[in-house]
Amino acid sequence: MHCPFCRHPDSRVVDSRTSDDGAAIRRRRQCPSCQRRFTTIETASLSVVKRSGVTEPFSRDKVVSGVRKACQGRPVSGDDLALLAQRVEEALRSAGSAEIDAYEIGLAILGPLRELDEVAYLRFASVYQAFESLDDFESAITSLRAEHAERAAAAADEAPTDR
User: Fold this and answer.
1) What is the tens place of the pLDDT at every residue in 126-147?
2) Of 25, 87, 101, 150, whose CB count within 10 A is highest?
3) In what order do the strands lie in the sheet with 55-57?
């Protein structure tokens, strides 16, 4: 690590701490030449392989901007979108791979988005999964309705009964 002050090619780590809930390591360093201290932050890189074969760093901002379009006009806040992007990144990192297909990111978005807002989920899924007909929408809506029915039945089973 080059010193940002004198450009000496070496530095000594004085202190290390985790930050961003363990996603990064913050290191205090000292230059042996000029004795000045500086901070570095280390994160594990996560790369996205696009359909064209181009590789670029993963960006939560891109996840948020893509999902924001599907959430337009819906009661979804910026904080909700930031949390969704964080959940997506955590899911992708937990897969243990340093490179992820762009398609996998879309799949990772669908689950949390479905929980956040079903209309936004349908909008996103219609583009992402390339819905071509009303039947595609119909089957997605049928799946959502079945899920609602299962949740209602489970809630009814857990509800106390008056005896």
Assistant:
1) 888 888 889 888 988 898 888 8
2) 87
3) 55-57, 47-49, 99-101
At a CB cut-off of 8 Å and minimum separation 6, what does 70 contact?
A: 113, 120, 121, 123, 124, 127
- The number of angstroms, rounded, from the C-alpha of 26 to the middle of its chain's C-alpha atoms is 22
Question: Which of 105, 91, 87 lies closest to 49 in space, CA to CA?
Answer: 105
Provide the token pair at 68: 């924001």
How far is the C-alpha of 109 from the C-alpha of 119, rounded, in Å? Answer: 14
pTM for this entry: 0.67
Q: What's the CA gap between 136 and 13, in Å, rounded? A: 56
Average confidence (pLDDT) over 28-53: 92
Residues 158 and 112: their CA atoms lie apart, in Å, by 25
In contact, 30 and 6? CB cutoff 8 Å: no
Report in angstroms the alpha-carbon separations of 138 from 13, 74, 109, 134, 145: 58, 21, 21, 6, 10
The residue type found at 129 is Q
Q: How many CA atoms lie within 13 A of 49 on its CB side?
A: 7
- Mean pLDDT on 8-17: 94
Rounded to whole angstroms, the Cα distance separating 57 from 60 reads 10
